[in-house]
Amino acid sequence: MSNFVDMVAKLGDPNEAPGGNLFLRKGLSLIPNSLKELSVLDIGSNTGSSTITIAEHLEKSKVIGIDVIDAMTRVASTNSTSTPYANRVSFDTGDAQSMPYKNETFDLVVSSGSFAFIEDPVKALEEAFRTLKSDGFLLAIEYFYKEKPSTALLDKVKGHLGVDVSKFTFDYWLDSFISAGFGFEGVEQTQPPVFSPKVRKNQQASIIKKLGEEEAKKMLEMDLDFIDNNKHLTIGVFLLRKPGVIEVFGPDRPTRN
User: Fold this and answer.
1) H-type alpha helices, 138-250
2) What is the residue extent of each domain of the chain?
3) In angstroms, what CA-CA distances link 221 with 22, 65, 136, 137, 166?
């Protein structure tokens, strides 16, 4: 039986950012100099939806998507070829905890809910910090619990995703960002959209055609649990910055140009 991520790859599902690409666009609108030509990395590019959205919003920028699952990278590459942004988008297969990019390569690093699925989120954040240029930005869109659901539901979601989601609170993310070296620029918090189980069930016939009866049934079970879990979640659109100078006080304090 395939896991959730494998099923998403088989479906070629957009698997958008937390809250959908609306929240990703909202976050991108906070980036200074967004009209300039930027070098951008999208961590956890999945099937390419977020990477393509970034290229659409940042009209002069080149965007690289990286995902640890090669099947996702192949789907993303195929999906991007039918868009007007194909010449500005590319995809690599690689681990966000040890990325194949040189120090200070990117002006902007984006993660649309991906850090939560990485074995060591802080290590991945440290890699994002390493590959960002001085004064570069990290835009991270992550779920967190303000009020946790029942243990039974948490256990189900953990089983579906292979991740202990119960640890994800606002303080968890803030502490992780600061631990990796980032300066905290700001955050917008909002409730995620809650979808009707009836709408999801109406999609089942088309999913069976792609996955088969057994896997489609399992995916429906997962999706209904995710819908229930979403009622307890908050979306944080976090804007972080890699400090361009070491902040010290006194007469030797450096100044920005």
Assistant:
1) 151-161, 170-179, 197-202, 204-211, 213-230
2) 13-147+162-194+233-241
3) 26, 29, 41, 37, 20
* Amino acid identity, position 236: G
At 178-198, the pLDDT tens digits run 999 999 999 999 888 777 788
CB-CB contact of 192 with 230 (8 Å): yes
Count of positions (residues) in the chain: 257
Residue 13 contacts residue 226 (beta carbons within 8 Å): no
Distance CA 235, CA 142 (A): 6
Distance CA 48, CA 111 (A): 12
Predicted structure pTM score? 0.84
Residue 75: count of CB within 10 angstroms of its CB: 23
Largest CA distance in the chain: 71
Place of tokens 């902007």: 108
The whole-number average pLDDT for the span 41-52 is 94
Q: In 3-state terms, what secondary structure has residue 205?
A: helix
CATH for the 13-147+162-194+233-241 domain, from 3.30.390.10, 3.40.50.1240, 1.10.10.410, 3.40.50.150: 3.40.50.150
Nearest-angstrom CA–CA distance, 106 and 131:
6
- Side-chain-side CA neighbours of residue 158 (13 Å): 12
Inform me whether the pLDDT recorded for 251 exceeds 70.
Answer: no
